Amino acid sequence: MPTIRSQILEVIRDAYPETFEGLGTSKPLGESIFSGRTPHPNEVLNLFVQQKLTSALPMAYYMATRRGLNSLMDRRLPRNATLPLEILQSAMGGLMRLRELELNETHDLIFEQTGSRPCSASNCPSRAPTGPAALAAYHQVFDRIVGSSQLGTKVLQVPEFYEDLDGELRCIGPGICSGCVERWESKHAELRKKAWASLPGVFGLKDCCPSSLLSWTLTTGTLQRVLGGVGISGRLL
Length: 237
Ligand SMILES: [Zn+2]
What we know:
This protein is mainly α. It folds into two domains: 99 residues, no CATH class; 97 residues, no CATH class. It is built from eight helices and two strands; from the N terminus they run ααααααββαα. α2 runs antiparallel to α3 and α3 packs across α5. Zinc ion binds next to α7.
């Protein structure tokens, strides 16, 4: 059944992209594409490692890692979702380095621009970077980017710097000018790219060159098993 097989591989490639450009912000990524029972991201990672799906590994590692240590090391998981020591170590090491990158870059995003040249908008709180209004805004930015990720990471996600207040779109830092928000957005876009490019390195995948899907050894049967035994949803096919 070569057609089903290539369709399934296409869907996997879409959900575990090989390039930054494949990382659409609105499309479903990772295990959420599977219909029926949604596999735990550890389970998908285990399978991809076993099957040497090297091109999908950076994303599979990221999907397992972003939920944090509790998810990586959850003792209640079934055997096929329990990570072997070597994979666990790579995943934890990668998580720590992604957290570090995320924190450092968020710090720079806020303070590098305020330090070198103050915002030119006359009433933007950023002009007084240590004033209460600016500090409140910066706190919100930190929170938006790294705060709620707890012990995991959200580094590939696009943060929302505006919120809807009764139909009115307002910046999460009250009074902050749109120029400042645009700078945050473009800096964060750079952070996402940098984080993406670092994935193979932080997860110790340096030596495994990206392989084409054509060289995957996965059988259709195995693919269907990981897809919950029933295949993938009709919408995706
Ligand atoms: Zn400003």
